[in-house]
Amino acid sequence: MKVTGALRARLAEIEMMVFDVDGVLTEGGIFYVDTGAEGKMFDVKDGLGIRVAGSAGLKTAIMTGRSSRVVERRARDLRMLDVLERVADKAAALRRLADEKGMSLAHIAFMGDDLNDREAIRAAGVSFAPADAAPEIKEIADLVTDAPGGKGAARQAVEAVLKAQDRWEKAVDDYLAGLAERDRSRRTAEGK
Question: Over 90: is that where the pLDDT of 86 sits?
């Protein structure tokens, strides 16, 4: 993934990253079990990247056309505060989110993979697409990751933003320090 100087300057202005789910945070498959429950598989590398983004103060959100308790749980696990589900018009929802947060769209990045993401990709300050996105989406996205959806694409997008802001290394250090502190607190509470 090659970042040009002009794009690097736009990435440096990003305050929030918004991710589609199916095909971005997952490989795009949906599986059902006999009870009617729905399942999705998420990539731990993407998750860690999103947690690092949070430790750097970068806001993160999910925007999806579907509704799923699995997605809500994943957002909680990753400490993502905004989960927008059953979104038909993602560009309009992105504009509303920007208004609610008091941000310019220029400060919001969006990552999508298919035709229903097209207008949000056009509206966002910076847009990302995974390597296996629909050709029409890869053509208009500002950056196409080397990784496919659900296999590190979101992580690469987070890294691109934080590296453009010269904050990646510190964010990783802060995240790891937080893990160590939580581990120490847990052991102290357990009397170990």
Answer: yes
CATH code, domain carrying 45: 3.40.50.1000
Per-residue pLDDT tens digits for 162-190 = 999 999 999 999 889 888 887 777 777 77
Q: How many domains is the chain partitioned into structurally?
A: 1
Smallest Cα–Cα separation from 117: which of 6, 18, 20, 15?
Answer: 20
Mean pLDDT, the chain, whole residue set: 92
Helix 168-189 to helix 44-55 angle (10° resolution) is 100
Residue of 117, 123, 154 lying closest to 138 (CA atoms):
117
User: How far, in Å, CA of 1 to CA of 51, rounded?
Assistant: 21
Tally of helices (H runs) and strands (E runs) in the chain: 8, 8
Q: Are 26 and 40 in contact (CB under 8 A)?
A: yes
Report CA torsion sign: 170, 174, 179, 180. positive
Site of tokens 């904050």? 167
In-domain check, residue 6: no
Domain limits for position 34 = 14-189
Q: Tell me the pLDDT tens digit for each residue of 104-134.
A: 999 999 999 999 999 999 999 999 999 999 9
